[in-house]
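Quick one, probably user error.
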């Protein structure tokens, strides 16, 4: 497991000398790392049990648990976690033993800022660069033509659509009234109802046809305007 925020790399520094942790913090914090210090191995293991880290730096010689024991316990529970041992008393034998445990590196004190930064970069993969957000002015500029075309099309089509509804509404209303009257007659006089229904259909048919004939050009113009808006939008997007 890794830290939940991919933009911040968490570094755990284990050293009984607080100056070491401050040195790591001073070098790595401006680079986007979060540096947390622990005074000994026991405190470090407790922190690791409650939160995730991306790399651990541990001093070799500490009271109680030494750096090799800390590295061994970390690797037993988190084999993927890079561990770097830092010491001022390192020997070739100690370094060889640390390598067997799978530590990522073995640094010797005193540590320069360049060594600390280079070690952190080597222990962790490079974070991918996030794409720069498009400026708000550019977004507004690109959206302006689409908004203008859409508004213009609606402005042109609105009168025709309204006129089509105004022309068709009386005929639709007459047809509905005739249908309701036919259903009422059907409940009492079946033969009269059938006659009334047929008469209603006969009388309303020309009006319905006329309504369709009058409304069709306006509906067609509205559809053409909508098609034009979509074509303009697709062309701008391409």
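Nope, works fine. Designed sequence:
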């Amino acid at each position: 497991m890794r830290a939940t925020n991919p933009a911040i790399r968490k570094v755990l520094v284990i050293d009984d000398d607080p100056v070491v942790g401050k040195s790591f913090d001073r070098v790595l914090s401006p680079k986007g790392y979060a540096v947390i210090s622990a005074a000994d191995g026991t405190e470090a293991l407790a922190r690791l049990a409650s939160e995730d880290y991306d790399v651990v730096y541990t001093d070799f010689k500490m009271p109680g648990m030494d750096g090799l024991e800390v590295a061994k316990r970390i690797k037993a529970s988190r084999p993927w976690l890079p561990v770097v041992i830092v010491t001022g008393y390192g020997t070739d034998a100690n370094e060889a033993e640390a390598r067997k445990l799978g530590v990522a590196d073995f640094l010797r004190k005193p540590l320069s800022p360049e060594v600390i930064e280079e070690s952190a970069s080597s222990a962790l993969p490079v974070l991918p660069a996030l794409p720069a957000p498009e400026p708000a002015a550019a977004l507004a500029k690109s959206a302006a033509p689409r908004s203008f075309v859409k508004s213009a099309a609606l402005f042109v089509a609105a009168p025709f659509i309204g006129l089509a509804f105004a022309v068709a509404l009386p005929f639709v209303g007459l047809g509905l009234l005739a249908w309701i009257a036919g259903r009422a007659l059907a409940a009492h006089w079946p033969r009269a109802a059938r006659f009334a229904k047929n008469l209603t259909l006969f009388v309303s048919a020309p009006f319905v046809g006329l309504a369709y004939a009058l409304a069709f050009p306006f509906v067609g113009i509205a559809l053409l305007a909508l098609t034009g808006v979509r074509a303009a939008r697709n062309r701008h997007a391409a």
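The two ends are 42 Å apart (CA to CA).
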